[in-house]
Amino acid sequence: MSRRNVQRFEERARSLGLTLPQCRVLLYLANNEGISQVHLAEITDIEPMTLVRILDRMESDGWLERRADPADRRARRLYLKAEGKPLVEDIWRLVELTRQEAFAGIPKKQAELLITLLEKVQRNLATLDPLAASAAAPKANKPGRRRAPASKSRRAGRGSRS
Length: 162
Hints:
By secondary structure, the chain is mostly helical. The protein has a domain at 2-111: Winged helix-like DNA-binding domain superfamily/Winged helix DNA-binding domain (Arc Repressor Mutant, subunit A), CATH 1.10.10. 57% of the residues lie in helices and 10% in strands. The chain is built from 8 helices and 3 strands, in the order ααβααββαααα. The chain has a 3-stranded antiparallel beta sheet. A hairpin with a 2-residue loop joins strand 2 and strand 3 (72-80). Helix 1 (2-14) packs across helix 5 (85-102) and helix 2 crosses helix 5. The longest helix has 20 residues, at 108-127. The protein is globular, with a radius of gyration of 24 Å. The model is unreliable at 153-162 (pLDDT under 50).
């Protein structure tokens, strides 16, 4: 479902000459002016080197500007320029058109509830700490731990062992 929704949106975004990552950057930037490049890469889930190329292009198109971070001379803060603001409005219009298609025939209250629930699931997953490698791996049988009984087919296949 997600893949099809994204594909449909990307078709629409191409009519504006935009890619999905560019749209994501513009929308996040519009709501988070002054964000650092590092933080923007994290919240958009775009690799930092890829994001730099996207930002270079958008800056040369006059859609955003980078400013030095007063607290960290190595960091850059991002700001949407006036030329980028109409694009944000166009992107939101495409989001709404795509959403209308996806939710056709579903009552508005149910669609809103579904969106709210999915956003909550996304926030929950985004805030989880990564599992440690040992915690993510299945537990080996340790002395004193009970093993699950073998299935009948596995028991039947065993020969008698003494």
